[in-house]
Write a structure and sequence with these properties.
Layout lengths: L22 E4 L13 E9 L9 E5 L12 E5 L5 E7 L4 E7 L6 E6 L5 E8 L4 E7 L10 E6 L11 H4 L3 E5 L5 E5 L5 E7 L6 E2 L4 E2 L4 E7 L4 E8 L10 E5 L13 E2 L5 E7 L4 E5 L7 E5 L6 E4 L4 E8 L10 E6 L17 E3 L5 E7 L2 E7 L7 E8 L5 E7 L11 H5 L2 E8 L10 E4 L4 E3 L5 E6 L5 E6 L6 E5 L9 E4 L4 E8 L3 H4 L4 E5 L7 E3 L6 E7 L2 E8 L4 E8 L5 E7 L4 E9 L9 E5 L5 E6 L5 E6 L2 E8 L6 E7 L4 E8 L3 E8 L8 E5 L9 E2 L3 E7 L2 E10 L4 E11 L5 E3 L2 E2 L4 E4 L2
Parallel strand pairs: 2-8, 9-16, 17-23, 24-30, 31-37, 38-44, 45-51, 52-58, 52-59
Antiparallel strand pairs: 1-8, 2-5, 3-4, 3-6, 6-7, 9-12, 10-11, 10-13, 13-14, 13-15, 17-20, 18-19, 18-21, 21-22, 24-27, 25-26, 25-28, 28-29, 31-34, 32-33, 32-35, 35-36, 38-41, 39-40, 39-42, 42-43, 45-48, 46-47, 46-49, 49-50, 52-55, 53-56, 54-55, 56-57, 57-60
Length: 761
């Protein structure tokens, strides 16, 4: 699913000199002789392209944030006088300031300047006439759609603006609303690329198939909104009781994945729900509510109802107290489950479940948590970390009255000056193909150091001395450059990063099926001697475009799941455009039924398709009637069928130029092994391994004093339960159990009083 601006580079902006396009520095006035230097100041002369003064222009000045998402710093705001001039006084010396100039009817202009102590500088800014970008929104019948929200989001002035002043960051998002004729407009958009998204409560959200170019005007085109389909379902607890007012999120390609989007719907008193205006194709459905474990499922078919069964969760509640016995507000807390590594493998709209911050009265609530044993830890500046070890957290029974008392920190904290001294300064210049310096190019590194090039193209980084560091330099209008340096081996002087003009590759994908057109298609090119790919977005008409691709031999690959194709492109230096058509190999229908032993259909069974290299190329599920239909190219494949409560099954097949239909796969019921755990100390959680006639699809689920293993079949199974301790010792309990054919449930209790002690090798 799409994640807009998912990569957040920890950008460190270095000081820049003035001199960006459109700005000219006047000679500095002679400073008065004073014993104490007067504060730095900047006089701006704002003119139009005819050299006439622009009055009433808003001038914003400010300093970048000291760290991402840090507190805002001081800003200045003034308005130009009738002669187009304005004076900004009191700007900090020896630090870069960002200057934004805005006036209705002109495109915004952004500059940066670094002033010396007591310096008074004059700068000329030339504004260019603005414009209007217009578009129209209609429904599937061509009727205008009024009151649709149109949003564009991107990087103003092609800058990563996360730690720039708010007045620059705010330029990255603009919103408009369509009128009665379905028309919308954006005035005076700043330079940069912006993604366009259209939302209306009665339609499926729509994203434009190509970026909006700022700094220009014109017709953005006609956008068609579709009604979509509805998903219906039911949410209950394990006893079948309905869960009312439970929030649900349908996460599609256009779901905002930064922050907390509002729920798509909440359940009715009878636990039922309806989510309307969903796009075709698979999407993820999340259930996140108080008192129950978070859950998500992938929905493949909108015309089939979904039944979610939510398990009760554990909850920790308490209060954080300071050294004086008073509540501490804002203290972060985290609960770590003993014996488990917890991480999120997918993005989720659900709130963080294992951490929290104390409120104004020092109170906190952490959950919903998996039942188990937890270590609870709290940290606060100037105080020693504190917490409670081995907290027992059962399902459905909140643990109340937890008190964490933090004590004063003894002595001073060590600063990181020694760590900073370990970094070596590396200086360099960014130049263009003709050797001319390039300012405001972004320099990023594999060590997380970053900088912007100055007006003379120079930059400075501080890098780890050992090993190699990869450096990337980029600037709109040029191809990205990747280079590797060894700071410890660098000679005196500086490195040169020369940016070249790249080629634009436009392409069309032929032979796509209707199913593939509604799913994600991956297009990207890679270079053998470079460790970075260039991805592309495929438009609804199956075309794509890659910009500023450097010269060289590239491998272009298109993948739609199990079908993929690859071709080689050779780009010559100075080549500006390349057009390519890529035809996918023909696809054939592979269809059949998944049934149980009594020939009853099994719906919702997961189907994994693996190719000859054991790579999963397709994920699907059976419909309610047990049917499935895949589109596969020629080749040899293995189809694996998975369904909870049944033994996994697989089928090998060869596709050779024709459909394969009327396939039938039978699934046998599986056995679940459950039991109680005895002889455990506080916080002890065993690892349980199982070996038998085949490998079960999942491992053992261990709770406080019980376990369960699903997916077992007839035969002899060996159970090995292991407990580790801090003394490099372990206790091992070994058992065997014979599972007869047809058994659905088996019981086996494990008592660690009979475990054997061993030394960990």
């Amino acid at each position: 699913m799409r994640h807009h601006m998912t990569t957040r580079w920890p950008v460190a902006f270095f000081l820049l000199l003035s001199g960006s396009p459109g700005a000219m520095a006047f000679p500095a006035a002679s400073p008065a002789v004073q014993s104490i230097p007067e504060p730095a100041s900047l006089v701006l002369h704002v003119l139009d392209r005819n050299g006439q003064p622009v009055s009433g222009a808003a001038i914003h000045a400010g300093m970048q944030l000291e760290e991402l998402d840090g507190p805002e710093r001081q800003t200045w705001q003034e308005t130009t006088a009738a002669d187009g001039t304005v004076r900004l006084a009191g700007l900090p010396a020896s630090e870069m300031a960002w200057i934004l100039v805005e006036r209705k009817g002109f495109f915004p202009d952004l500059h940066n300047v670094k002033l010396g102590a007591g310096e008074r500088r004059e700068m000329r800014v030339e504004l260019h006439p603005g414009g209007v970008a217009v578009g129209r929104v209609v429904d599937e019948a061509g009727r205008p759609v009024a009151s649709a929200e149109v949003e564009i989001e991107g990087n103003p002035f092609d800058l990563w603006a996360e730690n720039l002043p708010a007045f620059v960051r705010d330029l990255g998002t603009r919103r408009a609303r369509t009128g009665p004729a379905g028309r919308f407009r954006f005035r005076d958009l700043p330079e940069g690329d912006f993604d366009l998204t259209i939302r209306h409560p009665s339609f499926v959200p729509l994203q434009g198939d190509r970026p909006i170019q700022g700094g220009r005007s014109g017709d953005l085109g006609r956008f068609v909104l579709r009604r979509g389909e509805a998903l219906r379902g039911l949410v209950t607890d394990p006893e079948g009781r309905p869960l009312a007012n439970f929030p649900l999120w349908a996460v599609t390609e256009l779901t905002e994945q930064e922050g907390a989007p509002p729920p798509s719907t909440t359940t009715e008193p009878d636990g039922s729900f309806v989510i309307s205006h969903l796009p075709p194709g698979a999407f993820d459905l999340f259930a996140c509510g108080q008192g129950y474990l978070q859950q998500f499922v992938t929905v493949h078919f909108l015309d089939e109802p979904v039944h979610l069964t939510l398990e009760p969760a554990a909850t920790l509640r308490g209060q954080v107290i300071g050294p004086d016995g008073r509540p501490l507000a804002g203290v972060p807390l985290i609960a770590n489950r003993i014996g488990f590594l917890t991480f999120r493998c997918v993005w989720t709209p659900c709130a963080e479940d294992s951490s929290a911050s104390a409120d104004a009265e020092g109170r906190f609530e952490i959950g919903p948590l998996e039942p188990g044993w937890y270590d609870l830890r709290a940290t606060a500046d100037g105080l020693q970390p504190g917490g409670i070890e081995k907290l027992r957290a059962p399902a459905g029974e909140p643990v109340e009255g937890i008190e964490i008392r933090l004590q004063r920190e003894p002595g001073e904290k060590d600063d990181d000056s020694a760590e900073r001294r370990e970094l070596l300064p590396v200086r360099g210049r960014v130049v263009g193909p003709d050797g001319e310096p390039i300012e405001r190019a972004q320099i990023l590194t594999s060590s997380d150091a970053a900088a912007w090039s100055l007006a003379d193209g120079s930059f400075e980084l501080r890098l780890p001395p050992l090993g190699e560091t990869e450096i990337w330099a980029s600037k709109p209008g040029f191809a990205m450059l990747a280079s590797q340096v060894k700071p410890a081996d660098m000679p005196a002087g500086e490195i040169e990063l020369r940016l070249e003009r790249g080629a634009t590759i436009t392409g069309r994908i032929l032979g796509l099926t209707a199913q593939e057109r509604g799913a994600r298609i991956e297009v990207g090119i890679t270079k053998e001697d470079k460790n970075w790919p260039i991805p592309s977005h495929v438009r609804p008409d199956a075309t794509f475009q890659l910009d500023q691709v450097p010269p060289g031999t590239w491998s272009l690959r298109v993948s739609t799941g199990v079908r993929s194709t690859e071709t080689t492109l050779v780009l010559q230096p100075g080549q500006a455009e390349v057009s390519v058509e890529i035809e996918m190999a023909p696809a054939h229908t592979v269809a059949g039924l998944v049934l149980d032993e009594l020939a009853r259909p099994i719906g919702g069974a997961q189907i994994n398709v693996l190719n000859e290299n054991d790579l999963v190329g397709f994920l699907e599920s059976t419909r309610a009637d047990g049917s499935f239909a895949l589109q596969l190219p020629d080749g040899r494949f293995e189809i694996r069928i998975l369904k909870q409560g049944f033994l996994k099954s697989h089928l090998e097949l060869q596709v050779e130029g024709a459909p394969l239909e009327d396939l039938e796969l039978r699934l046998a019921p599986s056995t679940t092994l459950r039991g109680s755990l005895f002889g455990l100390g506080p916080g002890e959680t065993p690892t349980i391994l199982v070996q038998g006639p085949f490998d079960p699809e999942t491992g053992a689920e261990v709770e406080l004093d019980s376990y369960s293993i699903t997916g077992l079949g007839p035969g002899t199974w060996a159970i090995e339960a292991i407990l580790f301790n801090d003394a490099q010792e372990r206790r091992i309990l070994r058992q065997t159990i014979e599972i007869p054919p047809g058994a659905l449930e088996m019981g086996l209790d494990l008592d660690f009083a009979a475990a054997e002690a061993e030394v960990v090798p």
